[in-house]
From TrEMBL:
This is NLR family CARD domain-containing protein 3-like. It comes from the Eukaryota. Residues 891-1087 form the B30.2/SPRY domain. Residues 1-51, 65-88 are annotated as: Disordered. Residues 266-400 form the NACHT domain. GO terms for molecular function: ATP binding. Residues 1-16, 72-88 have a biased composition (Basic and acidic residues). It is found in: Cytoplasm. It comes from Acanthochromis polyacanthus (spiny chromis). The lineage of its organism: Eukaryota, Metazoa, Chordata, Craniata, Vertebrata. One of its GO terms (cellular component) is cytoplasm.
């Protein structure tokens, strides 16, 4: 068989050594053919090399410009001199004889040039060699550039095969230059990401990476908060959110500023839960660059996965040495000064990092040649002390994102998983039988917890694999083994079925259409070894396991490779020199399931509770009820504020159910039956729900009750909701938690949440805060909220997706606005609309808001402060902020008119004048609500509390809260104020007058002008002349403010506010200076 026949019959196989072309003298071909620069299809000639032969693997494409063009079709009437009948009869051997002669002429010609480059000082050169040396400087070469490149590749290959790697590198660097050499090699290496394997590398189906769905969404701002929730809770939250308004950003654009922005983005952190596609995104970024599609301004891409950096924890090296370790192509091409190139450093898997990353205490390092620990090099890289012009991309799970200080991160992006349409699309593609696919989709949708989990692509694969298998078994054996065909409704049932059908999983990860191996392939011993590994490293927070750690558990590398359905080796195609192989479970949830299974098996088979300290090594023979183990697991899970053991707990409780144990014994034959005392355990969990104030922890406890098939609390609150009587019902702590769980697990999107449907109290607000956190619009108006709620709401605003909040008609006051502004000022607050009408806000609160909006000006679009009293100063502050932010609208409508009547009327108090304190010339009527200054004294009995020299009276009520009252008078001389009970009543002179001592505060009206008095000091009030003689008084005792307002039918004007610290109850007091003048206590009017 000749070469051409081998090529036709075995196009994908390596060509044997016997196919190598013999070397001929170039003298046999005096006139070498002239090749054009590019091949007919526009690409350079590619030479593939094999270990058997350099020349036999060269694939040289035909070029239309070759003068020796052969047309073997014999159909063209206009044939040239080579298209003779004789040439048409030439066989393959003759054709390739010509190719051999011409190809060898090119090769020998180029090799003589390379010889001159590598050995310029050779003493003896042949005439032809000297001639070729001269031709090196000639600009008019007749050789095709791609052919020359092919000759160079062959030469480099042979030199390396001969062990002359340094000579090969020297030649390549001379021809291309160090950067070009490095880029060529790097691009070739990164093209391995063109395909990914769905399943095992040996058996899975290759898929083009560019067809794998991976989408990044920009997250404005930099998160400085830590998400104290298990990732499953984060998935649940994401599943309830409506379509995001954030603009999507492609992988290649993560370092580009958004439209309208002009800033250098150096460090990007990309967050995403386990299995969501962070590493795939990194691979796509690499591939796009390698294939020249995008980001060609980047000169070097250096990938430094944290799982490999972990293995260098104890090493000391320079940054150049570290980068050479991960980019050997740079070392080979002679690049040592990375400062002069545009470099992107990619750190994948921050959550896998076992380095301390001590940004605070690590020493300073500013030189590429300074030797330091890897940890010091990394922290100085991220601080910009090393390679300040380099771009840095870090991927991580959300919980670890906080390991990099906020001020070092310029952009945060998030990778989202499948949305609802994509879930269905996946099942339809995965399951070829569309009727079966519809059944799978229907079942997953019917179980909310499973449907939410399908947000993760790997869980969608698990669900499709298990449910398809069950349906196929049911169709084949509809009457046999009926229990085994039951469709899983909980996570534990799903994962137990997953383990039972491990034969499907052994050879695939997301694959479909694989052949069906033995269903009992995982032996019990290996399952328990993996379970022990899973549990002990789960407690340490490890997801990555190195070969040395596997050896500690007596797990061989070969074993790990066999069980890749649940436990897999991380890609061998990572970067660097691979100090040690790394492994992980296919997904974190599988590790958590294996950990729970191991704990349960150890307890029921050996009576050992591995969750408790072991006091003795003695193993009890008699079986022990599993309930104490489960109770201790509940207690331990609640001790972890970050929800670290939440899913582990759900699996453990689920495994205590008889149905799951029956399934599990198919792979763990030694497992004994040991069911929990369900009612006792249920009551223990319900008690924890009553005791635990954390909504996040309580929600997981409801999931635990679901695993135990107890839905009593949920059904109780659902019945209350259906009756429509919830807002009038007093709920217990457990019922509040159940309500939050029902709302958070509803199929409906939490676009708008109206608290008034469920509660109008601060207790309801705090109990449903977790629901508010997951909504886009929070309607909290008229819910009797005060400043006590503002601190909690501020925390929500700084760490959630809430875009709009309506707090109208709540008594927040300036003190509440101060707390709320702390959240608004956070760079992680994305609130766009805030409504605060009728919230009792003055110029002080306006100052807090203005400061917050200046600190975080990017997001707020609308601020409504209508029906408050900002005053002139407050209006100026907010107008200045609005002027600086073109996208911000501040509403300050109808403040004077309605502030008092609508915002403060809720504090209206009933007052009665105390006749025992009244001056003798005052007469009272209308149930002691009205007093008149008389010429003659009234027949009042003597009383030590009575004012004797001035026409004053105090009210009977002592006030020490927020209170509001209005008075209206006739005459031109009136005093309105408050006083301590100890104010003098009998002193001569002015000592008893309201405002003329340190025991009272007063507003005085005299002939149309107002003055404010305290301790004989007066403060003139510059306000227009008023025909109306009506004043409203607002006392905020705890805040130390006493405010006076001029009130008329259509206007309200702030007159004066006293700021002090009150020490005892205050009694409203009034004084009339003119005979026949009157003063009446009025009821506040509704606007």
């Amino acid at each position: 068989m000749d070469v051409s026949e081998q090529t036709e019959k075995c196009p994908d196989k390596e060509r044997p050594a016997s196919s190598c072309l013999s070397l001929r003298s170039d003298a046999s071909m005096p006139n070498p053919p002239e090749f054009s620069k590019d091949t007919a299809d526009g690409r350079s000639v590619q030479f593939e090399t094999s270990n058997t032969s350099a020349l036999s693997c060269a694939s040289i494409k035909r070029d239309s410009s070759m003068p020796t063009h052969l047309d073997l079709t014999n159909k063209d009437p206009d044939r040239d001199q080579y298209d003779s009948p004789e040439s048409a009869k030439m066989d393959g051997n003759a054709i390739f004889k010509l190719v051999e002669i011409q190809g060898m002429d090119i090769l020998m010609h180029e090799m003589r040039k390379y010889k001159g480059i590598l050995f310029p000082n050779l003493s003896q050169c042949s005439g032809s060699d000297k001639q070729d040396e001269v031709s090196l400087t000639s600009e008019n070469t007749q050789q095709d550039g791609s052919a020359c490149e092919g000759a160079l590749k062959i030469t480099l290959h042979v030199l390396k095969e001969m062990g002359q790697k340094e000579l090969a590198n020297k030649l390549e660097k001379h021809i291309y230059g160090e950067l070009d050499v490095c880029q060529r090699k790097l691009r070739d290496k990164l093209r391995k990401f063109e395909y990914i394997y769905e399943g095992l590398t040996q058996h899975g189906n290759q898929t083009l990476l560019n067809k794998v769905y991976t989408e990044l969404y920009i997250t404005e701002g930099v998160s400085g908060t830590v998400n104290n929730e298990h990732e499953i809770r984060q998935i649940e939250a994401a599943a309830r959110r409506p379509a995001t308004e954030d603009k999507p950003i492609k992988c290649e654009d993560i370092f580009n500023p958004l439209c309208g922005q002009d800033r250098f983005i150096r460090t990007v952190v990309t967050k995403g839960i386990s299995g969501i596609g962070k590493t795939i995104s990194v691979q796509k970024f690499n591939l796009d660059w390698a294939e020249g599609r995008v980001n060609q301004v980047i000169q070097l891409l250096i990938n430094l996965p944290f799982r490999e950096l972990n293995l260098m924890k104890e090493r000391r090296c320079t940054l150049t040495q570290l980068l050479h370790h991960f980019l050997t192509e740079a070392k080979e091409s002679g690049i040592s000064n990375f400062d002069k190139y545009k470099v992107v450093l990619i750190f994948d898997g921050l959550d896998e990092c076992r380095l301390p990353l001590d940004f605070d205490r690590n020493e300073l390092c500013c030189s590429l040649s300074d030797e330091a620990s890897v940890d010091v090099l990394l922290t100085n890289l991220m601080k910009g002390n090393l390679l300040p012009s380099a771009r840095i991309w870090v991927t991580t799970r959300p919980a670890a994102a906080g390991r990099i200080p906020v001020d070092l991160v310029d952009r945060v992006t998030e990778i989202r998983g499948f949305n609802d349409p994509q879930k269905e699309e996946y099942f339809k593609k995965k399951i070829s039988d569309q009727n079966m696919a519809k059944k799978v989709i229907s079942h997953v949708k019917s179980t909310r917890s499973l449907y939410i989990m399908c947000h993760i692509p790997v869980f969608s694969w698990i669900s499709a694999t298990v449910l398809q298998k069950i349906l196929q078994e049911t169709e084949r054996r509809p009457e046999e083994d009926e229990g085994r065909g039951e469709m899983p409704n909980t996570l534990t049932q799903m994962y137990t079925s997953f383990l039972r059908y491990n034969s499907l999983i052994k050879s695939q990860k997301y694959s479909a259409g694989q052949e069906e191996p033995d269903t009992r392939s995982l032996d019990e011993e290996m399952i328990l070894k993996l379970g022990k590994l899973a549990f002990e490293h789960l407690m340490k927070g490890n997801m990555i396991f190195y070969e040395s750690e596997l050896n500690e558990y007596d797990i061989s590398v070969n074993d790990a490779a066999i069980y890749s359905g649940v436990f897999t080796q991380i890609s061998k195609d990572d970067f660097g020199l691979h100090l040690e192989r790394a492994y992980c479970f296919v997904h974190l949830s599988i590790q958590e399931y294996f950990a729970a299974m191991y704990i349960f098996h150890t307890f029921v088979c050996f009576n050992q509770n591995l969750l408790e300290p072991q006091e003795t090594s003695t193993v009890q023979e008699a079986p022990v009820a599993v309930t104490p183990l489960l109770k201790s697991a509940v207690d331990q899970a609640l001790q972890h504020d970050n929800g670290h053991l939440d899913l582990f707990l759900r699996f453990l409780l689920g495994l205590s159910q008889t149905s799951n144990q029956t399934l599990l014994r198919s792979v763990l034959p030694t497992l004994r039956s040991n069911s929990s005392r369900n009612q006792e355990l249920v009551e223990h969990i319900k008690e924890k729900i009553r005791q635990n104030p954390s909504p996040e922890r309580c929600i997981n406890l409801f999931h635990c009750l679901s695993e135990l098939n107890d839905h009593s609390l949920v059904e109780e609150i659902q019945n209350t909701l259906s009756s429509g009587s919830l807002s009038e019902t007093t709920l217990s702590s457990s019922q509040w938690s159940a309500l939050a769980y029902v709302l958070l697990t509803s199929m409906e999107e939490l676009d708008e949440f109206d608290l008034r449907k469920y509660s109008r109290s601060e207790e309801g607000f705090l109990k449903l805060l977790s629901v508010i956190k997951e909504s886009r619009v929070a309607l909290l108006k008229e819910c009797n909220l005060t400043e006590k709620c503002c601190d909690a709401l501020a925390a929500v605003l700084s760490s959630s997706c809430v875009k709009e909040v309506d707090l109208s008609n709540n008594d927040l006051q300036d003190s509440g606005v101060k707390l709320l502004s702390a959240g608004l000022a956070s760079p992680t607050c994305h609130l766009e609309k805030l409504r605060l009408p009728f919230c009792g806000i003055t110029e002080i609160g306006c100052g807090f808001l203005a400061e917050a909006l200046r600190a975080n000006p990017s997001h707020m679009k609308e601020l409504d402060l209508s029906y408050n009293h900002p005053g002139q100063v407050g209006m100026e502050l907010l107008s200045s902020v609005q002027k600086d932010n073109e996208h911000l609208t501040v509403r300050l409508n109808n403040n004077e008119e309605c502030y008092l009547k609508s915002s403060l009327k809720k504090y209206a108090c009933k007052l009665t004048m105390d006749l025992n304190t009244a001056h003798s010339h005052l007469r009272f009527s209308e149930d002691n609500k009205k007093m008149t200054h008389m010429e003659a004294a009234q027949p009042y009995p003597d009383n030590p509390d009575r004012f004797t020299d001035w026409g004053q009276v105090l009210c009977a009520e002592g006030l020490c809260d927020r209170c509001y009252w209005e008075v209206e008078w006739t005459g031109e001389r009136t005093g309105i104020g408050v006083a301590y009970k100890g104010i003098s009543r009998k002193a001569t002179g002015n000592e008893c007058v309201l405002g003329y001592n340190d025991q009272s505060w007063s507003l005085r009206y005299c002939n149309g002008k107002y003055t404010a008095w305290y301790n004989r000091n007066d403060a003139p009030i510059s306000v227009p002349y008023f025909n109306s003689k009506r004043v409203g008084v607002f006392l905020d005792w705890s805040a130390g403010t006493l405010s006076f307002y001029a009130v008329s039918a259509h206007t309200m004007t702030h007159l004066h506010t006293f700021h002090t610290e009150f020490s005892e109850p205050l009694y409203p007091g009034f004084r009339l200076g003119n005979v026949h003048s009157t003063l009446t206590l009025c009821q506040a009017e509704t606007p």
